[in-house]
Design goal:
The protein has 268 residues and is mostly helical. It has ten helices and no strands. α5 crosses α6.
């Protein structure tokens, strides 16, 4: 360095923008203990009700798979880890050892493949070969089955190296879903748009839970108990996060700049 001392170095002044959160965390007041206890008891009751619904669907494979998919998308899977593992274990034993699934449609096959592979089961992608024509391409008739195409797209995102059929499936579904999305009605259009932007494989359940709740409540076949649980669970966790941020914010020395305070909020 030159003979100039560090004190002589002029640095540009930086003005940080006000925090987008303002004082909301410092001034946050959590629910009182009575309200919190009431809501927690309500969550426990709803968990039991949803657990019964999940187990009751054991005789209806597609219904049970759809229910498990909804539970996971709504960020509630951590409440039913044992039940989900048992249910998918039964599905694996039935369909990949005893039952021929040649009559199942693309949506059903894709959903089963994705859920089982997500759970860690060694599932062969050969199950999708029957959706190809004699030329080795995916059948054109599949294009009109948007739910099936979306299911195949999500399944293909779980591919591993060497699974050429899933590479082809991803290219096939991505191309056609992008061309179809503008012509679809709600909520299917939103589902497709979300999947194209960020497939389940690359998303986090908790971050997607809020938007998935909005979609799920507009589905005619939704479970009232599951929807209530999703909303209450989401609100309780939000309250917990705010309480933690409030506590952390109060620990930050007053001498810290707004920049440092924002970093605390963003990294918490």
């Amino acid at each position: 360095m030159s003979s100039h001392s560090l004190a002589d170095v002029k640095r540009p002044a930086v003005r940080f923008l006000p925090s987008i959160w303002g004082d909301r965390f410092i001034n946050y007041t959590p629910d009182d203990e009575i309200t919190l206890a009431y809501n927690q008891k309500k969550v426990e009751d709803l968990i039991e009700e949803v657990r019964r619904e999940l187990m009751a669907a054991d005789g209806e494979p597609l219904q049970q798979l759809n229910f498990i998919d909804s539970v996971q998308r709504l960020g509630l899977a951590y409440n039913f880890e044992k039940e989900i593992e048992e249910a998918l274990g039964h599905v694996y034993d039935k369909y990949y050892h005893h039952i021929d699934d040649k009559n199942d449609d693309l949506y059903h096959v894709s959903l089963r493949f994705r859920l089982l592979r997500q759970q860690g089961y060694n599932i062969s992608c050969d199950t999708f070969k029957r959706f190809k024509d004699e030329n080795g391409s995916f059948k054109e008739c599949l294009i009109i089955d948007v739910e099936g195409m979306l299911g195949l797209y999500e399944a293909a995102n779980l591919r591993v190296e060497g699974e050429d059929i899933l590479d082809e499936a991803l290219a096939f579904t991505t191309t056609h879903l992008k061309s179809l999305v503008e012509h679809l009605a709600y909520p299917l259009a939103v589902k497709v748009s979300k999947a194209i932007y960020r497939p389940i494989r690359k998303s986090l359940e908790r971050l997607e839970a809020r938007s998935n709740i909005s979609i799920y409540q507009d589905e005619a076949s939704h479970s009232k108990a599951l929807l209530k649980l999703a909303k209450l669970d989401f609100n309780l966790l939000q309250s917990l996060y705010k309480s933690e941020l409030s506590y952390i914010t109060r620990l930050v020395p007053q001498s810290c700049t707004q920049f440092h305070l924002d970093r605390v909020h963003r990294c918490s």
